[in-house]
Amino acid sequence: MTPADSAQPEGPSANGQAATLELRGISKRYPGAAEPAIDGLSLEVAAGEICVLVGPSGCGKTTAMRLVNRMIEPTSGDILIDGRSIIDRRPSELRRQIGYAIQQIGLFPHQTIAENIATVPRLLGWDKRRIAARVQELMELVALEGAMAARYPSQLSGGQRQRVGVARALAADPPLMLMDEPFGAIDPISRERLQNEFLRLQGEIRKTIVFVTHDIDEAIKMGDRIAVLRKGGVLAQYATPAELLMAPADAFVEDFVGADRALKRLALQRVRDIDLWEAPTVRVGDSAAQARDRAAASVIGHVLLVDDDARPVSWLQPADLEGDRVPAHEGRVTMVELDDVLRDALADLLQGQVMYGVVTDHGGRVAGVLSVEIISEFLAQQVAGRIDEAPAPAQRVA
Amino acid sequence: MSPPTLAQVTIRDRTSDEPSCVAQNGFCPDWIRDHIGDYMAPLLRHLELTVVSVLAGFVIAFALALLAHRRRWLTGPITGITGVMYTIPSLALFAILLPITGFGFVTGVIALTSYNLLVIFRNIVAGLDNVPDAAKDAATGMGMTDRQRLWQVELPLAIPEIVAGVRVATTTTVGLAALAFIAGAGGLGQQIITDIVFKSNIVIASVLCILLAAALDLAILAVQRAALPWRRVPV
After folding, report:
1. In A, what residues contact B, Cβ < 8 A?
2. Do A241 and A290 sit in the same domain of this protein?
3. Less CB within 10 Å around the terminal CB: N or C of chain A?
4. SS3 A157
């Protein structure tokens, strides 16, 4: 492993230098078209932020993204990456510095997964050992088994291909990434999981990302800032998700964001951001009397059986605690993660038809209990218009 | 008259009651067993004609296809010209070429090559056209130059269709090469025309033609399978 270790100077977060991006008065007119595709678009993206371009079809969001790596040349205006204009740079060299992931993924069917991921490093002339080490590292980063390396794209599921696409875009550790509906072509469940994984990944790698989607929910979930475009490539509003939901700039944005704005705000908060109930946990062999007391003291009325690693096993009713000691028990527990957004967590509770969900951390250990009650209190505060304040602690029951 | 006729006279002389198989120009296993060796040289020449013509046709068609890939408007004219070449009756073409390139192997190859151009050219162009747009877009978006994209992504993905074209061209050429004797290029056709009434002769030459076509086709298929692991993975 030593040669591999020494051959990977660009760890996922090792030199993750993120770039700033600035579009200055960019316009794009196609010859013969009555309307411009992009009209005087200016926006700045700070280093390490995800900027989502969103809007109805035909609003020029993909065009705007493709201008950044010169897949499309602007009619007028300038684009600066880290303050440097892209106009005088060779397109192929510029593009090798910019990660690129598209909805159709565009994996090369004749190359193995490892070869696909290695595309840009190969173009940059890295030596074989460095490429091999980087490929291995990336496959771990996007949670692909090592055995996948020798397979071909046709042998992978849609979700796995998307991960390969993301890994390939990250391969040369680019300071800027362009992603055009990267999770668009997969089923909603895999999509949500990939979104969450990607946000977790972004927490580590902190790239500057231009992310295109037509889905306002995805925009709110993924974006640090959101640029809403309207037909003709005009910027309607450029704001943080909270600002967009609280104060839409005009009727178009308000309409595009949707009538369920209050509910959408649930997508802005993660489970870890609100105060959870403490979980009344017990282990097999604990005193049953104490467990009964805890169940009675808790508003939940149950205790939560956990294993030796503090992972949830089952809820126990007082009726399950008849003996001296807490017995082994099997059951079903609805679980949500600290990193889930509240909207997804609520959906999980509703789907499981339960009032309480056990919140787990990265290692699957119990971190608390989330209830429908906590969420509805949070929503009540939102409707009262106090989104900019930290959510007040929910009623805590010892 | 040619030697087989002499032989048949001799054999006819020996069997007095019934005329011999050879004398009747029939299908004679014994005669075939004894004379099969005589067909090896024409067979090799036939193979030579086919391989050289297909290779030459491939090289020219490949160059034309790359040209048409860069300049799309050339596709029509090239298809038209190679199409006209394809429709010239082979007999006429040999006749046209004879005064220019003379009587011999080269004339045969030129004619056969010209018949290969259309089918190989069209399959290369179609193969390149059928490369998924997403793969091309990703290749360019990740920083491949046009040339890198062509050689690393487009051509490898077009190989199945290119090979299909080469297979059709090869089979066709084996058949057409049977007429190359008109240009003086030899081959199994020469052997057929030497004694066109003798069934044994015709059967051997024809069967060898068919076997040659089948063998070449299988050989190309085997090479393709070995060269394209991604085409035979279980999905």
Report:
1. 69, 71, 92-97, 100, 102, 104-111, 119-120, 123, 151-152, 154-155, 168-169, 178
2. no
3. N
4. coil
User: Least CB-CB distance to B233: which of A94, A155, A169?
Assistant: A155
Does the global pTM surpass 0.80? no
Asked if residue A266 belongs to a domain, the reply is no
Of A78-82, A380-384, B57-61, B76-80, the least confident: A380-384
Query: pLDDT class for B27, splitting at 50, 70, 90?
Result: confident
- SS3 readout for A354-378: CCEEEEECCCCCEEEEEEHHHHHHH
Which chain A residue lies closest to B145 (C-alpha atoms)? A92
Domain boundaries, position A155? 2-259
Residue A343, domain CATH: 3.10.580.10
For A177, the enclosing helix (H) or strand (E) is strand A176-180
Asked, for residue A264, whether it belongs to a domain, the answer is: no
A318 and A378 co-located in one domain: yes
- In chain B, what residues touch A97 (CB-CB under 8 Å)? 143
Class of residue A146 by CB neighbours under 10 A (exposed 0-12, middle 13-18, buried 19+): exposed
Residues in chain B: 235
How would residue B181 be classed by pLDDT, with cut points 50, 70 and 90?
Answer: confident
Per-residue pLDDT for A264 more than 90? Answer: no
